[in-house]
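Appendix C reproduces, verbatim, an entry submitted by the partner laboratory led by Prof. M.T., so that reviewers can inspect both the input and the predicted structure.
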Amino acid sequence: MDILSNPRFVEVWRKNGMLVASMVLLGAVAFTFWPSLDCGFLFFDENDEIFAESHVNTGLSWENIYWSFTTLSHNNWNPLKWLSHILDCDFYGLNPRGHHLTSVLIYGSSCVLLFVLLKMMTGA
């Protein structure tokens, strides 16, 4: 008897399939991006966004939150990106490993969220 047609396997998959698939997706994202934790800041954007912006590297404050929602720095309006960088500086200082860990967590969460939303919308 084929394992995929086994009623016990089908029952377990129905109960835990979303969890297993989500864990596989998280594992794939972590496997792909984990090497970035050993890299430094990139010269073409992270240096400008983290080191050069005094609002970012001084950590979380009301002034910096206000700035993140009102600035058009780098010709874009990205308040969530700025808040993420500000919080990273609060948690990790200027250690690139922590900043990159946050990015890996955001990528993994986004991947799982997209998977869950597609599953809910299509039922497939």
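The mean pLDDT is 85. Additional entries are available on request from the coordinating office.
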